[in-house]
Amino acid sequence: MKRSTGLVGALLPLSVLALAPRAEANSMVTHVWVAEQSITQIEPGPLRDIVADPALRGVIQNGAIYPDSGYSVRHEYGEWAHWESWVEPYLQWIRGRWGSEGYRSADARRHVAFLLGCAAHSMTDQTFDQYFMARARQHDRTGADNLDIGSDAWLVVEHGVTSEADGRFWVDELPGIHAAVGGPAVTPAVLTEAGSLTSAGTRFLVRFGHTLYTARWREMPWSASHYMDPDTPGAYPHLVSTTAAYWRFLWRRLQGDAPPGAAPIYSWPSPDQVNFPVGRDDIESRVVVTTPWGLDDASVNDTTVRILGPDDAPVPAQVSRYGDHGNTLMIRSTADLAYDTAYRVELSASLRTLEGSLTGTARSIPFRTRCAPDRLAMCPPLPTPRPTLAAPPVSTPRPPPGLDAGSGTVVIEPDDAGAVVVDAGEALDAATLDAPAALDAGAAAPPATEGCGCRAGGSGSGASGGAGLVLVGLAGLVRSRRRRALSAGAS
Ligand SMILES: [Zn+2]
User: Fold this and answer.
1) Would you tell me which of 70, 287, 385, 386 could form a disulfide with 77, CB atoms 3.0–4.6 Å apart?
2) pLDDT in tens, 58-93
3) Could you tell me the pTM of the whole model?
4) Residues 6+ apart with CB under 8 A from 297
5) From ligand 1's centre to the CA of 221, what distance in Å?
6) For the chain, give me the number of helices (H) and strands (E)?
7) What distance in angstroms lies between residue 490's CA and the mean position of ligand 1's atoms?
8) Residue 121 C-alpha to ligand 1 middle, in angstroms?
9) Range(s) for CATH 2.60.40.1220 in the chain?
10) Cα 389 to ligand 1 centre (Å)
């Protein structure tokens, strides 16, 4: 595709993203969107009263970008805040102060909202990475390094999603909370810079993510055509439902009545699933389980997390966990499963939660494998095969209002080299964009907020820092999460 000079200029900041080390998980537009969508799934009641409170909307949004903000300034709190290493002690810190009053005071409500925003980020990353991104790597034959930014671009273009997170964290309050719960030391200056960079990067993606739309489609056609598919494990509808389930359970944890042996909130296979694949190299045959508690690393191994077959014989398998005190377990059998056979995933009663309790209840997820090719009539019909590069998916992009992107359907066809090319009908008309304009947009002052409850973090360095800060921030946002990449790679 021929690109104008202006388009190249507009792509410059985003090319920083593309050239950055491998990225994982989701980007900021997605995180804010998932948190907001999850609100709509919470039933009427005290929890809904908090998450749906318009005065707390900005707090939840800022919670939803808080973990990645640490990456923007290359501070260790970013990784730490991604997991129950932050969620559990922060939850207990909140409970110790306001549990007895039922979280009715303004301070209690804003902290619960911030906790839930952070938890939404955590659950979104875990679910997307281990259920969806793992498939993207196999189906799109890609490292998926650009999937986080790409899926943000698709969300912006196809669904008109925006983000208003202003990054104004409680910079005078959070350092003390970090210290109280044993987290990495932060200063108001660090959090001010991190919030400014992250919110600026988010606004940049909202405004200019469309310039990456087609390129990311070309690179990851399976992902582009499945990220919103409810039948695809870990696709966006599951990010929302899993986050909402996590929120419900965190609310019980805040009350102190959450059972240690609670059932998983999401899994592949789902309970009583049929036609489970048998090939050990097929990503669809990898078991993934999401628990509503963070689990104590020391209690997770191949004797406490197993796949059991006929006569309760354990299947040889590799067990791994995601992240520092994450909620996600991966079990990969090292041998092919048998056709048309009942199995079950079993979580032992001797698993321990991060809060310190034995789960005390064994949990089983029964499932059955598919029939052999010559005996298909003995099993329920197999699902329609997912599109492949040989049978390409199709999408109709809908650009943001005011942009003339044409109306052509994106059709992906194999080229002579077996790769794919994209004919977008008419290219996105981004020729009017240039680098200075893009950077200005990225560094624009945050929109005015009302009732966020967040304490303003200085003047907002993003407004004065300009292009350089945005670039640094964007690069930082996609810096490698080496630990998780290693964990994912080992699974
Ligand atoms: Zn993240």
Assistant:
1) 70
2) 999 999 999 999 999 999 999 999 999 999 999 999
3) 0.80
4) 321, 325
5) 23
6) 17, 11
7) 19
8) 6
9) 259-378
10) 29
